[in-house]
């Protein structure tokens, strides 16, 4: 609860205003109830009965008001004369009507101000919280995305945050309104009989006990159901993205069954949550009933010994009942608030995640920026986890790459090629050794400057559901249409873009699914050409394109690599042959290095890999 209230801190002025408005609305609401009860006595009656009933009420509380009457008599106020004089007067309903309208308008106005302001605070908290989560997720290291699935992250940012909005916008307001009602009726109860009301105070904590137990359970089940919802979203997203494979392998019912299992686990915990929520109200009702029944027994005693009149006691019971209604509503609102409190740890987990790829405390600009003269791995070791018994994925990598050099990385699957290039833009930090550019350790450079040095072309082309222009100019705000067209021409993409319905303004669908594989690759190459970064990291696609598409992509890549320092994870013999240096990786170590001719003479791993490839077996 404290955490939920902490979220409101920046909006305390608006929240305070909403609270005051809601309390005033509750006060006017009870005044309205009072006015309606006085309708019978003061409006829908004749003058004599009205005065009689007023007088009865006034003089009825003899003990309480005796002092006031004496005091008024002493000052010569003719109470009895007033009583007589008004007996013949006609009833004028206008003052009551005006009063009723004024009170109602005040109640409605404060209700509007309170509800709207509280709702606005809720929406603002949620929008800010969601944005803070999005901003945080954007800065997360790749380790975070390995640990949390996409669906889980999406559920936390969307569904979990929505529960908080509901709690703040609606339920907090309800709580406050009902609390104000409780205060008003408590005051009345004390006014009528303070001794009896004190007894009530002893009994009220009895109500709090089950509320605390239920709250804990609701929080627990709410957390569980949300985590299964996350798993469901995550799995569903995978299935939707991979629908072609699911259909191709006829796995629709298999996936449906798997999804149904998670769905039923969600159902199980959502149902438990619902059961506890549903049981809260009757249990509270029962406790309320026990309280009322105890009062009746006690009342029987006080009426018999003459401490209270029957009428007073009945009125008191009514007040207590009125007191119990808002408490019941508060219990219901509390259930919803507890559900929101239940998801808070899931949000906190994201917000408090420690990003291990840190910005240096005293960043240093790279000497000679943006020219990359030298890129060096010095005894680099790396593993994904930090357990001491985990094997090294890269072990003792020593490598120097000069300006304009092309280095091809080859090796069996899982030998560490992709991992090696991921260390350069600090997607992961090395575990041991040093990684330098122009002699400066990359961990001392500002992250933005470091990442600006690399152009990435990966084998799974990453495109967004946006226009061709925006996909090529991704991240470059100032790129003009001419620049984009120029890059597209160099990437052999201009021609096919011209044939699209809206040319460069065509939206290409989620992940560019309205384009062919070769077209997607050429768009991502155009993007890298436009970025014009000094170092190129290329992950050559293993999937076969037809000869024409392959030739077009290859031409685009050649243009891209011109006069650039390039590290390429190479699968095509043509690329490997052109490389200045070929590094052969095996189980995280560089086992051979040199150019094609030299390595072929070696009769080692490289020669074997090439022979396997020539035999048509995919080995690189
Ligand atoms: N995010 C990760 N978390 C944990 N281990 C990983 C992760 N990514 C890769 N690995 C492991 O690190 C090792 C090297 O993987 P890497 O992707 O660098 O190999 P690769 O040579 O690029 O393989 P391929 O040619 O098949 O892409 C593998 O054993 C792999 O299981």
Automatic annotation (TrEMBL):
Subcellular location: Cell membrane
GO MF, one example: ATP hydrolysis activity
ABC transmembrane type-1 domain boundaries: 18-339
Segments crossing the lipid bilayer: 12-36, 94-113, 276-301, 307-324
SMART domains xref list: AAA (SM00382)
SUPFAM superfamilies referenced in this protein's UniProt entry, alphabetically: ABC transporter transmembrane region, P-loop containing nucleoside triphosphate hydrolases
Keywords of the record: ATP-binding, Membrane, Nucleotide-binding, Transmembrane, Transmembrane helix
Membrane topology note: Multi-pass membrane protein
Name by which UniProt lists this protein: ABC transporter ATP-binding protein
Domain called ABC transporter: residue spans: 375-612
Record-level GO cellular component terms: plasma membrane
Top-rank lineage group of the source organism: Bacteria
